[in-house]
Design a protein that fits this description.
The protein has 648 residues and is an alpha+beta fold. It contains 20 helices and 35 strands.
Length: 648
């Protein structure tokens, strides 16, 4: 029997017969490890303990202490156990797919009757019985004909379609959890009893088209979450409760910020309060960019198909573009245009006007660019995921030698802005070449090497995000963590050798010859709409005073104080504070409650005592007490707080 060599994390290696399983490897090390083992990692690939190992490599045995593989297995096994429970309770239900996702999983079912929220409790109870039974999990590899015959006999049409989608020659792996079977790549745990019965919960129901295709059957999707222990589950559910309270859509209604309606799917109707936030944020970014050496431009919304073909977007991005056909006067055929989904090709057009010298580089060109991208209706989510949005977009035209300095400069620029906006730290991901891309492998090698080297020179070792780069170049993704621990990917920085070549951009070098510039695509906030949603949820609507849509309400306690109320409002407004008067014939407690729900940061209550002493009674949001201050004191204090961070 042929031998293979397996190298362990400590660097030691052992020889084993080819075909040995990871479970047997664990037993050879220590029986105690074999009992704790749940899976293995072979040359970085997550594998089942029962799979035969046929070639040499590096191996690590995973236990429940190894968080990433443990959570993947737990959530994947829970998906199968849930599907088994559903078919036990409703045998006529057809199963489809059940992938792992953030914090849990979902599984799609084809069932005549709709599931109800009450059904989730019954499914959970059945799942716990399956876990308690400790049924063994086993796997086999079948040939295609046997698998097809099996699913025809089981009347599972969706599984038959999945088999058709699996390339010829690829293994068809069958998993049994007890007597319930599913087509699955694996890996899985060794028995259902390894699942933590007190660390999962089914959360909600949704509809979903089969394979995301609106022309295919509508299925019923059940979502669940799972963790390694009860405490982690409890912490996650608490976070979900807090997230529901912070939801920007809920806050948007209470604060009267925006609305959306069917007549404009994926588009936002900004109300005056919401637009105050938008303008304050945009003004701040405009000042920051000017100070950072950017020139601001503006480019057309509707651009000819010809430019999108030249840039490569027509080939690589057309499914996300809104096409506009126009009957030009006297034209025999319609002119085909598109709403711009991004600004980069238009910025190259500005760069290409007139000769550029190496002395002009780096040229940092910024635009608050309004873009439109098609998103499926099911993917739309408040102002976080829309079809119409504005980016704080910029493109830096530079030489190859300037990539490192400009990357470092941008990371410092972004860091300062994130700190001003309440985010003291972030993670950086390095997104590499996608499967569908423009440019040669040589060009991508150069671009990836340049960006990675520049990032490391800036003192950052990024996480690798394989295959998630743009079609024209690799990118850095800047990931924020909000007040309740959620991650948000916001800023990006990309190195692009492709578009300057495709769109014939050039500059005159020191040698007097033409050279191609490198194009660095960068966005700090990304979409203004999405970032405002993140801010609203991060601060639970209680935005810093300089960003708050309504900063101060001056409320009268008695009508005789109205004149002083209006005097205070005028004085605050003269100092640039968004102040308003509330002189309605309502009790002060009613006014305070109403403005507190609307997240007004400061309420100044004015009665006759305040009129006589030329003072104000200042109440802060979420602060039960009040301060009695002179009008001058309060004006100076609020004017300072309302000043944007870059102007202090």
């Amino acid at each position: 029997m042929s031998q293979i060599s397996l190298t362990f994390p400590d660097g030691n290696a052992r020889d084993y017969p080819a075909g040995i399983t990871a479970a047997e490897v664990a037993e050879s090390i220590a029986p105690s490890l074999a009992k704790r083992a749940i899976s293995a990692s072979l040359d970085g690939k997550h594998i089942d303990l029962a799979w035969p190992i046929t070639s040499s490599g590096t191996i690590a045995i995973n236990t429940m202490k190894d968080e990433a593989p443990a959570l993947e297995l737990i959530r994947h096994d829970f998906a199968h156990v849930m599907a088994r429970a559903v078919q036990k309770l409703w045998p006529d239900t057809k199963v489809t797919i059940g992938p792992v996702r953030d914090f849990g999983w979902f599984y799609d079912f084809d069932r005549a009757e709709p599931f109800t929220p009450e059904d989730l409790g019954a499914i959970e109870a059945e799942m716990k019985q399956i876990i308690a039974a400790r049924d063994p999990v086993r796997t086999e590899v079948w040939d295609r004909d046997r698998a097809i015959a099996y699913y025809k006999d089981q009347n599972e049409p969706f599984k038959l379609e999945l088999i058709d989608r699996i390339p010829e020659g690829e293994d068809l792996r069958m998993y049994w959890h007890g007597d319930w079977q599913d087509l699955c790549r694996g890996p899985h745990l060794q028995n259902t009893g390894q699942l933590p019965a007190d660390a999962f919960k089914l959360t909600h129901l949704a509809g979903a088209y089969w394979l995301g295709d609106a022309t295919r059957p509508m299925l019923q999707r059940i979502y669940g979450v799972a963790f390694r222990n009860r405490d982690d589950l409890k912490a996650h559910l608490t976070m979900l409760e807090e997230a529901a309270k912070r939801d920007h859509r809920k806050q948007g209604r209470e604060m009267d910020l925006f609305h959306m309606q069917e007549e404009a799917p994926g588009q936002i109707f900004w109300h005056p309060n919401g637009w105050n936030i938008y303008v304050a944020l945009q003004d701040y970014m405009r000042r920051r960019q000017r100070a950072g050496g950017y020139v601001e431009v503006n480019t057309p919304q509707v651009v000819s198909r010809k430019l999108w073909e030249e840039s490569g977007h027509w080939e690589n991005y057309q499914d996300h573009m809104f096409i506009v056909e126009v009957d030009e006067e006297h034209a025999k055929t319609k002119t085909v245009n598109a709403l711009k989904p991004m600004n980069c090709p238009c910025h190259v057009q500005i760069f290409n006007v007139g000769l550029k010298s190496y002395r002009d580089l780096p040229l940092r060109m910024a635009e608050f660019g309004s873009c439109n991208r098609y998103e499926p209706s099911g993917a739309l989510h408040g102002i976080m995921r829309v079809r119409g949005f504005t980016q704080d977009d910029a493109h830096i035209f530079c030489t190859e030698n300037q990539i490192e300095a400009e990357t470092k400069r941008f990371i410092e620029f972004l860091s300062a802005i994130y700190r001003d906006l309440g985010f003291d730290s972030f993670r950086v991901k390095f997104a590499t070449r996608p499967e569908h891309r423009a440019g040669s492998d040589e060009t991508w090698d150069k671009a990836e090497s340049a960006l990675l080297s520049a990032t490391r020179a800036a003192g950052i070792e990024p996480e690798v995000n394989p295959g998630e780069g743009a079609f024209y170049g690799p990118k850095l993704e800047f990931v924020l963590t909000d007040a309740i621990g959620r991650d948000w990917q916001c800023g990006t920085h990309q190195v692009d050798f492709v578009l300057p070549e495709r769109l014939d951009a050039s500059y005159i070098g020191e040698d007097g010859a033409k050279h191609r510039p490198v194009m660095l695509h960068r966005a700090t906030l990304g979409s203004f709409e999405r970032f405002i949603g993140i801010l609203i949820e991060n601060f639970a609507g209680k935005l810093p005073l300089w960003l708050a849509p309504r900063q101060v309400v001056v409320a009268s306690i008695v009508s005789d104080a109205d004149d002083y109320v209006h005097e205070i409002v005028a004085q605050l407004q003269a100092r640039g504070i968004r102040a308003e008067a509330d002189t309605r014939n309502e009790k002060i407690n009613y006014k305070v409650r109403e403005h507190s729900v609307a997240k007004v940061p400061v309420i100044l209550a004015i009665g006759m005592k305040e009129v006589e002493t030329r003072t104000v009674s200042m109440r802060r949001l979420d602060n039960q007490g009040s301060q009695n201050l002179s009008l001058e004191e309060v004006t100076n204090q609020l004017a300072s707080e309302a000043t944007p961070p870059d102007l202090r």
